[in-house]
Amino acid sequence: MGISTIDAGMVKNAFLAGAKGLEAKKEWINELNVFPVPDGDTGTNMTLTIMAAAREVAELSDPSMEQLAKAISSGSLRGARGNSGVILSQLLRGFTKEIQSTEAIDVTTLANAMVRGMETAYKAVMKPKEGTILTVARGMADKAVEMAGQTDDIVVFAEAVIKEGDYVLSQTPEILPVLKQAGVVDSGGQGLMQVVKGAFDGLTGVCTDFSLVETSALGVSEEKKPQAAGASRTDIDTADIRFGYCTEFIIKLEKTYTEEDERGLKEYLCSIGDSLVVVSDDEIVKIHVHTNHPGLAFEKGLSYGSLSRMKVDNMREEHEERVIQDSERLAREQAQETAAETEGGEIKERRPYGFIAVSCGDGLSEIFKGIGADFLIEGGQTMNPSTEDMLNAIAKVNADTIFILPNNKNIILAANQARDLTEDKKIVVIPSRTVPQGITALVNFIPDLTPEENLENMTSEMERVRTAQITYAVRNTTIDGMEIHEGDIMAIGDRGMLAVDRSVSRAAQKALEAMLDKDSELVTIYYGSDVAKEDAVSLKEQAKEEFPDKEIELQYGGQPIYYYMISAE
């Protein structure tokens, strides 16, 4: 089937199919992340980014190319989360700038749009790193320019571009040694390929269902809703959960697994549940299904091979707990908003400076408020806040100049994007990569300095801080020569892995030994919500015995997932 031009209706369908293609593979993409930490990973970030745009596109009926371009660009820019999501939004932004003034796209326009998207994305990253999504985008753009001079058939053009993208992606481990060591390709590049392949399927008729069904954090399939960040978990009534157990497992194939076998497996699982996702390759099949009979799903899986990573969650209990947590969080946010907007019952006067910090625990949030943060954005390791979240926070801080502390390397680009979209206030992003860096930066703000001088001073002071974070591994891998197994406790430093152990306290002790030197004076241990206070006190006492010349502080951080955050300066 040859296609010489693409009109706006075809672009709409292709984009929605691309979004669905990424969403269907997001968990697989998450597993490609080098560090096996239980956080908001690449697949999740990219999916949330593109779905923000897809919702706006889906609302358009019979759109013009200009309307589509605006919806894709605006939706992805504001919905961007994490470095991979921001880069994806910039690829889309550049692409749509090229097509917005056309009525129909031919191979030349398509090639120019891909080049413009790639160039826009490279410009958005201060220090572009090769072997990433950027490299894959550049490889496809270069091939697009080549193919535009050889064919007028968009199908032939696209097939060649996709083939080149797959090849460049396969070479990313040769460019980035950390990928080769972990035995994976770049996750962002893989996500981009899923978008492009999904769009091609939509263009050629392989995909014909363009309705949006998104999977929430609870795993409940939800029809498209107008909220910018998707439906709230509290929108799901427990009584409406027809199948109560979110069931996941991996089949390690022990016999031939054909397309007919896959169809049969899907038909059976659909007969006992819903929200089915089946992802397979030559060796394994990953299953996600909501059912009232997890045992039947496991039994069916055993007919194809052995099972691993079996997980069953009661969604009704999860939902009830989430409703309570969301209610408490909403109350905190409303109290923050009131405090930020009023003082003594009157609207605060506009101040010269304001501060926004990303925080990931009630103890850490109290620390930030105590040292001057005006507004806290809930997020960090478990969920990267979007550009829209940043813009909403900026709107609530009544100040001429606002300093943003991302406190996570994967949030800095979203903060920069919010800065670039803000016109009525001066936004200064302090590039804090960890919470301890953010605390140090805020403490060192000096009102008498200019914003530029404070940026230099705060950045300089925070760069003296070394950080270790103690968490658990969610899959097997090898990093920095250390063999890691699922469930191991990892101590992750600023530049890589510090230690791996089966014990939380031993991993923390090894982290201290690895990060402290003669210049270290003050050590602060922030313990998380999953650590008993007596265990944290014991770690502090052991540290004092081992390092008697250091000042050791213990603080309750309340951060989830990360047992300890340790800073040294």
List the helices and strands and how they pair.
Elements: H1 8-24, H2 26-30, H3 42-58, H4 65-79, H5 82-99, H6 107-124, H7 133-148, H8 154-175, H9 177-182, H10 187-204, E1 213-215, E2 221-223, E3 245-253, H11 259-272, E4 273-280, E5 284-291, H12 294-302, E6 305-314, H13 315-341, E7 342-343, E8 346-347, E9 351-359, H14 362-370, E10 375-378, H15 387-396, E11 399-405, H16 412-421, E12 426-429, H17 435-443, H18 451-462, E13 466-472, E14 477-479, E15 482-484, E16 489-492, E17 497-501, H19 504-515, E18 522-527, H20 533-546, E19 551-556, E20 564-568
Parallel strand pairs: 9-10, 9-11, 11-12, 18-19
Antiparallel strand pairs: 1-2, 3-5, 3-6, 4-5, 7-8, 13-16, 13-20, 14-15, 16-17, 18-20
Helix pairs in contact: 1-3, 1-10, 3-4, 3-5, 4-5, 5-6, 5-16, 6-7, 7-8, 7-10, 8-10, 11-12, 15-16, 17-18, 19-20
